[in-house]
Each structure stands twice: as C-alpha cells, then as structure tokens.
Amino acid sequence: MQIDFWSDIVCPYCALTDNRLRLALERFEHADEVRIVHRSFQLHPDLPRAGITQRRLLDSHGISEARGEQIFTPIERAARAEGLEPFHALERTLGPTDHAHELLALAADQGRGGEVWTAMFRAHFGQGRELWTIEQVLDFAVEAGLDGEEAAEALRDRRYLARVAADQREAERLGARGMPFITLDGAYAVPGAVGTEELLAAITRAWEAAHPEPRPLPVLGGTAAAACGPDGCVVPPHPAP
C-alpha cells in the first residue's frame, strides 16, 4: 500500500499530521507493507527570501492579532498534547520553501525522506529555524547527516526543482486546495488535518478495499448434487441426470 503525503514545512497542520500518521501506522497491523511517499507543496512561494513574521503575514491578509491567537493557540495546544513541544506556530518567521523541498527530494532519493521531513518540521516549529536560503538549508542538511557537498551541488544546480513543481501540479490535479493532503493507494483522499483515529480508520478502509476477504461463490443448481469428499461419496435423493 502506498500513502502519498503532500505538505509544506511551514504548515503547522502538516507537522501534526506527520506525527499522527506515524502514530496511526504504529497501530496498523500491516504497517510493514505500507510505503509513505512525501511530496512537496509550497504554500507561500512568493514570500521574501529574508522571511516574514507570521504576525505580519496575518496582518497583510487583514487578520487581527486577536484572531491570529484564536487560530494558532489551539494548534499549539494540540501539538503539546501529542508530545510535540516546544511548538511555535504563531511566534515564528515564514519564507519560501523551494530550497527546503529540493533538499527533501534529495533525502528521499537516499531513502531518508520521511526521517528528514520529520527533522525539518521539528527544526522549524520546535527551534524556530529559518530554512529559506540555500545557506540555511545547507546548515540544516549537515546537521541532519546529509552530505554537505552533495546537497550544495543539488541545490545550486536546482537538480530537484522540476520534481518539486511536478508534485505541486499533481496535488492540484487531484483536487488539493490546502495542506496537508493525503492519498491512499491513489484511490482515496484525506484532505486537511484529521486525528490519529481518523487516519487509522481511513488507512484500514483503504487496505480492506484493496485486499477483500475471500468469499464463497454463489451456488447455482441446488445444494443436493452428487459429490465426493474425503469421507466418501454422497448420493442425492434424486440421482443427477
């Protein structure tokens, strides 16, 4: 089974979903047969490379400080309840995440996609790390155990730019209007942030749909036909013609 998980590292609901997906799979009996593919979606590609505070971004959209508190305080509370602490969704800086997504694509090619996605979420929301410039992303890459020279070459050559853009187009084609966005075996979509229980239920349903239990075939011609079994043969009351 393949789970495709679109997200952006500056999306707090995506960070929660990353954690909830891990918790759901810990309880899923077929988890060893599940493959998670992380895919990229940039929410704010036009933000300044120097970054902008979350409060200022809200203000630019006409959202008051009080409303901002109402939006982000419950998210931070949920993160703490799920063991993600510290978790700063409001007091942080946002920026364009193209270089970060390109590094994540490199990590995926090395079989470390999920691990590095989680580390990047924790760096941004837990430590307030800014990951908008190549230099910032390369500093993170080395800390995450990736080869710095290889990462630098990939980012400066924009080796993964086309893949990141293709991920975004595919999400939009599938109907994604926000993040996070999950598909299950390409047959079911889970848009937005849902709880661990809901994720587990969705994964279970998708698995059962793809692996139905064998059922006896409908019987035609009656059940009293002549037949032989391990213990001998049965003659029906009216012999078969």
Automatic annotation (TrEMBL):
Transmembrane segments: none annotated. Keywords: Isomerase. GO terms for molecular function: isomerase activity; oxidoreductase activity. The keyword Cell division does not apply. SUPFAM superfamilies: Thioredoxin-like. The keyword Isomerase applies. Residues 2-203 form the DSBA-like thioredoxin domain. This is Predicted dithiol-disulfide isomerase, DsbA family.
